[in-house]
Amino acid sequence: MKFQSDILSACSGLLFAVGLLVGWGLLAGSLPPLSPSATAEVVASFYQQNEVRIQFGLGVTLASMAFLVPFGSALAAQIRRMEGERAVLANAQLGCAILTAGVVTMGMTLFAIASFRPERNIEITYLLNDMAWIAFTMPVSGIMVWMLVTGIAIVSDRSAPAVFPRWSGYFCFLGATLTAPGFPVALFKSGPFAWNGLLAFWVALVTAFAWIIIMSVLIIRAVKQEAEALG
Amino acid sequence: MISTIGAQDKPSRHIPAEAGAWVFLFGDMSIFGLFFATYLYYRGISPADFTAAQSILDPNLGTLNTLILLLSSWLVVVAMRALRMGRQSLSSGLLIASVLCGGIFLTLKFSEYGKVFELVDEPLKVDYFMYYFMLTGLHSLHVMVGMGLLLFMARHALGVSATSPANWQFLEFGGCYWHMVDLLWIVIFPLLYLLR
User: Fold this and answer.
1) C-alpha to C-alpha distance for B53 and A95, rounded to whole angstroms
2) To 5 degrees, how large is the angle CA B14–CA B177–CA B115?
3) Residue A188 and residue B166: Cβ atoms within 8 Å?
């Protein structure tokens, strides 16, 4: 099979998503999130009571973070087909993939540090928990611009047959809009824009996962079409 | 051969911009819908607090903003008609005028923000104002993006291939986007200013 590494790379985006969901979400028990309005006692006792689960879960998550980069590279290969040699958007897109992986890695590492000495002064655990949540949810521009440049590449593609269906370009714009509401999380301790809020957290998280899954499927389809066209 | 004639005769319905664009437009509107529902839910829990906080806003200013956006939407419609009739510079001028309406809208909006910060201590800690700032703030971001699109449209309207299918598709998308911005405001305005 031609372009096998493209297909493997496209699938690696799913490894990132599963690693995040299973490790941080399920094992470390971060879904649903601790509330930003919870007291230091509540936060510290969460880390004390679930010490090993959290530490192990974050290990799983942190091991899977960089799998987002091959996914970005497979997407870059398709975007290069759309825009040709200069590949301005393909490069921008790959840079944003790396930035996104870096941002999530940073947030997850802070969660791991928070879980490292649960017996410490509760105020310090409180601070580390704040750091982790804000580092994870607030720096939205990496993923937002990632979706934006991908969308621009898709809707500007005038090749026939188109590499990606046009609706997927508009879906990228929607994704960029829906991942943006994380930017004000430092302002709120409750409500839809807090770090556990409907818009800043749930909608953004579901959008990011849906985007990775849909893009993986579209990359694999486009690679197969490309291979068929080459015979 | 004969059997296909019927199918071809069937008039195809025109979707403004393109079908895919509505993934974005409907998606964006649904999320605003979700946000409206959240606001109404929390408002329902403590209606008196919301109404009290709301009373410092001037509904006349909100009405003026509504009229300005409606005017700008109408200008975009006329601009598209003008372009279809080949009057490129008129069309471009009308689009610039609608950008100016957007600018007036934002100026009024931001002056209202200034007033709120003057009259209320720590408005972000008041639930009503949290929703007020986030709803109008996200909407204002949409207005800014829309103004950018309208400027692009004004430039495209002057080009030699202004009415080529690809160009027309972009112009229609920009128009639909601007109408959506208008529509969202028409919902936000009563929710924030008029509801008692």
Assistant:
1) 45
2) 155
3) no
Q: Which CATH class is domain B32-194?
A: mainly alpha
Convert the pLDDT of each residue in A107-118 to its tens digit: 999 999 999 999
Residues with Cβ < 8 Å from A149, sequence gap 6 or more? A89, A92, A93, A96
Spatial distance between the Cα atoms of B156 and B92, rounded to a whole number of angstroms: 8
What would the pLDDT profile of A50-90 be if each residue is shown by its tens digit?
A: 999 999 999 999 999 999 999 999 999 999 999 988 899 99
- Listed as own residue / partner, the contacts of B127-130 with beta carbons closer than 8 Å and 24 or more positions apart are B127/A191, B127/B42, B127/B46, B127/B49, B127/B50, B127/B53, B128/B43, B128/B49, B128/B50, B128/B53, B128/B54, B129/B53, B130/A188, B130/A191, B130/A193
Predicted confidence (pLDDT) per residue in A156-170, tens digit: 998 888 999 999 999
Residue of A167, A191, A199 lying closest to B23 (CB–CB) = A167
Contact B134/A203, CB-based, under 8 Å?
A: no
Count of CB pairs separated by less than 8 Å, A with B: 51
Which of A158, A167, A184 shows the shortest C-beta gap to B20? A167
Length of chain A: 231
Give φ, ψ of B74 to 5 degrees: -65, -40
Which residue in B23, B26, B133 has the most chain A C-beta atoms within 10 A of its own C-beta, making it the best mutation to test that interface?
B23
A181–B130 C-beta distance less than 8 A: no
- For chain B positions 3-42, those within 8 Å of chain A (CB to CB) are 18-24, 27-28, 31, 34-35, 38, 42
Radius of gyration of chain A (CA): 19
Smallest CA–CA distance, residue A167 to chain B, in Å, is 4
